[in-house]
Fold this protein.
Amino acid sequence: MLVKSTTRHVRIYTAEVKDNELVDNQNVLTLDVDPDNEFNWSEDALQKVYRKFDELVEASSGEELSEYNLRRIGSDLEHFIRSLLNKGEVNYNLGGKVRNYSMGLPKVESPDTEGKFM
């Protein structure tokens, strides 16, 4: 049975991707980061999320693979993504379809605010 966790910016599945389809696999966790493209990602920032995911999965090794445990990992990843946003390592995709600013209003530099958002 496919177990999943869905948060605003993170989807985790007990499945693997084959031919662009999710195939149930209780031995594999698949991570989908920012499926709505709410953020602009550098490769470095995206890799940080994947490494954090690996750390969280390793830390929960031996626990039951339940929706609750996947939600906990997803929630921790949401907080991690928020920290990347606050540090300026990712930013909102202002040209994207989705603009709900779920992690706070964008911080845009202007002559009046220069240097205040660093």
